[in-house]
Amino acid sequence: MDFDLIxxxxxxxxxxxxxxxxxxxxxxxxxxxxxxxxxxxxxxxxPSKTLIEAAEHGVPFEAAxxxxxxxxxxxxxxxxxxxxxxxxxxxxxxxxxFISPREIRVEGRRMRGGRYVIATGTRPALPQLPGLVDVxxxxxxxxxxxxxxxxxxxxxxxxxxxxxxxxAFARFGTRVTIVEARDWLLPAEDPEAGxxxxxxxxxxxxxxxxxxxxxxxxPCGAGVRMVVSGNAGGADSERLLVAAGRSPVTxxxxxxxxxxxxxxxxxxVTDAHMATTAPGIYAAGDRCPFTHAAHAMGRIAARNALxxxxxxxxxxxxxxxxxxxxxxxxxxxxxxxHPEAVDAPDAERVRLAxxxxxxxxxxxxxxxxxxxxxxxxxxxxxxxTVGGGRLLGATVVAHRAGEMIHEPALAIATxxxxxxxxxxxxxxxxxSVAIQQAAAQFFMSVNGRSAHPASPIYGGGFQ
Length: 463
Hints:
This protein is an alpha/beta fold. The chain folds into 3 domains: 2-37 and 79-122 and 247-318, FAD/NAD(P)-binding domain (3-Layer(bba) Sandwich), CATH 3.50.50; 132-244, FAD/NAD(P)-binding domain (3-Layer(bba) Sandwich), CATH 3.50.50.60; 329-453, FAD/NAD-linked reductase, C-terminal dimerisation domain (Enolase-like, domain 1, 2-Layer Sandwich). Helix content is 29%, strand content 25%. It has 15 helices and 22 strands. The chain has helices spanning 12-23, 38-42, 45-56, 61-76, 81-86, 160-171, 191-203, 255-258, 291-306, 338-342, 361-366, 401-404, 406-414, 419-423, 433-440, and strands at 2-8, 28-32, 89-93, 96-100, 103-106, 109-118, 122-124, 152-156, 175-180, 207-210, 214-220, 223-228, 234-237, 239-242, 246-248, 281-283, 323-325, 330-335, 351-356, 372-378, 390-398, 452-453. Strands 1, 2, 3, 4, 5, 6 and 16 form a 7-stranded mixed sheet that branches. Helix 1 packs parallel to helix 9 (291-306) and helix 3 (45-56) runs parallel beside helix 6 (160-171).
C-alpha cells in the first residue's frame, strides 16, 4: 500500500496533519493505535472541561459523569474512521513500526509512504516514587471512569491538570489535598497567578502543600498515604491522582530503523519546520504540549512534508501560542512570563503594565475581582517605544481569562504596536476592556498608574 503521506498518531496533531494533507489532494493514511481523537477527546480537554462546567453549576457527580460521556461521544463522532474516509483519509488500525525510512509495519501489513508525520503524543508521566506501583492510583486516563466522587482525594502535582481536577472534585464535595514540589501552584506560570489560585483554593477548602517533596506512597487502610518530607507530614486519602507531567510515546515506533533521533526524554527531535533528523519524516505535537498547538504543528508538518521544490517551508512559533488553565478564576498566558522577562539579557528595557481585576467594572459587577492583567513590553528595533513598543508576553488571571488572552496573542503573532490594543474601542462592560486599560498604561496614567520597568518582585501590587 503506497501513500503520499502516512500520519502515525490519532490525536490533535495527527488529525491536523491528515486533514491538511487530504485538503491538498494527497493520498493520506492515518495509522491509529487508539481511539481516533486521542487524549484530548477521550481523557483530556473534552471530559475535563465538561466535568469542570458541571462542578461549577452544582450538577451531582453521577449526572456530571453522564454529561462527560455524552460530550465525548458527540465530539468523537466527528472524528471516527467513517468520518475521516469521507474526507479522503484512509485509516489503518494498529501499532505502527518503522522497518525502513519509507516503510512501516501495521499489524503484519507493510505500507510505504513518500513522506511521514509522527504524531504519537504523550501519556501521563509516572514519577520514580517508592511504593507508587503498589497502590491503586488515578491519572487523567482513568479518573473519568469513577462512578462516585471520593470522600478524600490527594493530588500529586500542582500544575494545570492537578489544579483543574482538584477544584472540580472539591466542588463535588471531595476533601482535596494538593502536594506540589515547587514553591507555588502552577509553577509554569507567573508566581503571582499561582498565589491567586492558592488563595481561592483555601477559601474553597482545598488544602495546598507547596515546596513539599513526596518521599514514598504506601497503602493506608482502604486508601493511600503520601509520606511528605520535612514538617509537612503525610497526606491520607481514599484515592490518589497523579498529575506529574507527560512523557512521550515513541519507544515502540522503531525510530532507529528510520534514522529519527530522540532526546534523552524520548521526545522526537525536530527543527522549527517540524523536520526530524531523517529526510522526509516530520514530527508534530511535542514542542508545545497543548491541543491547539499540536493541531497547528500537525498542519505545518504536513504542509512542509508535501511542499513543492523551491517553495518556502512554514515555521512553528511557540511565542504566540496561548495557554489556559481552566481553574476558576482561569489563568491564561502567552509569550514571556514576568520572571522570564526579568531574566532576559535586556531586562532593563522591558516595561510592565499591571491592572488588578478589582479596578475592572465588569469584574466588580460580577463580584469576581480576584486576579489581574500583566502586559510585558519591549522596545522595537529602530523605532524604540513608538506606538508603545511591542508586546512580549501577557498573563491574565480572571473569570474569563481564556477568552481575554487572544488579543495579546494576536498582538504577539502580528508584532503589532501595543497602541492598537489601547486605541481599539472595546464594548463596555466586558472582561476584555481590561486588556485595553492595561495597554493604555504604556501611554498615560490610568487610575493613577502608568507602565513601569519590570521588577523581579513578584508579589501582588503594581511593580
